[in-house]
Amino acid sequence: MTTLKDELVGAWKLLSYIEVPIGGSDSLFPLGKSPRGLLIYAPDGYMSVQIAKEGRLPFKSNDKLNPDVTEMEAAVKGYLAFTGKYKVDNKMAIVHYVVSHSLYPNWDHSVLSRSINFEGDVLYMKSTEPTLSNGQQVNSYMTWQRMSATIEHTNEEEVYEAYRTL
After folding, report:
1. What is the DSSP code (8-state) at residue 105?
2. How far apart are CA 10 and CA 85, in angstroms?
């Protein structure tokens, strides 16, 4: 019998990330309408997620530890990331993340839960509890597509080719 964990294991590409305020206001796109993201579930129960706002600008200094304050603020506000262990509740169709490290330090050593639903190679997720985002209580909705083992983007092919020539 296939479990939800079996269906989750692998790499997922973000298709959409939307926040819906509890009060019924219009949907929000805190990382833009076309964010990029990668969600990885390992068979041993570890996971990692990275989501980047569309159109992020490089630091003028080209020094990862020495941006100016404005650049640092934009970088932090334009990125969501955490890692840790995950556990799946098959009966409730919920994945629980036991966060060990997060860009948002308030999530360190916490549990985040998402309801999950599959349609073929597409994974739909919704936060099970609202969170505070830009002063509003919101629920997060994410849509992911399973990634294949082949290189899918021209840029990745160029990076791999450059690496092979080293």
Report:
1. G
2. 14
| Alpha helices (runs of H) in 42-133, residue ranges in sequence order | 69-77
What is the 8-class DSSP label of residue 28?
A: B
Burial class (CB in 10 A: 0-12, 13-18, 19+), 114: buried
Give the pTM: 0.86
pLDDT in tens, 49-98: 999 999 999 999 999 888 999 999 999 999 999 999 999 999 999 999 99
Q: Which long-range contacts (CB under 8 A, 24 or more apart) does 39-42 make?
A: 39/11, 39/12, 39/14, 39/144, 40/10, 40/11, 40/12, 41/5, 41/8, 41/9, 41/10, 41/12, 41/86, 42/9
DSSP run (H or E) holding 8? helix 4-8
* Cα distances (angstroms) measured from residue 37 to each of 17, 144, 146, 164: 9, 9, 12, 25
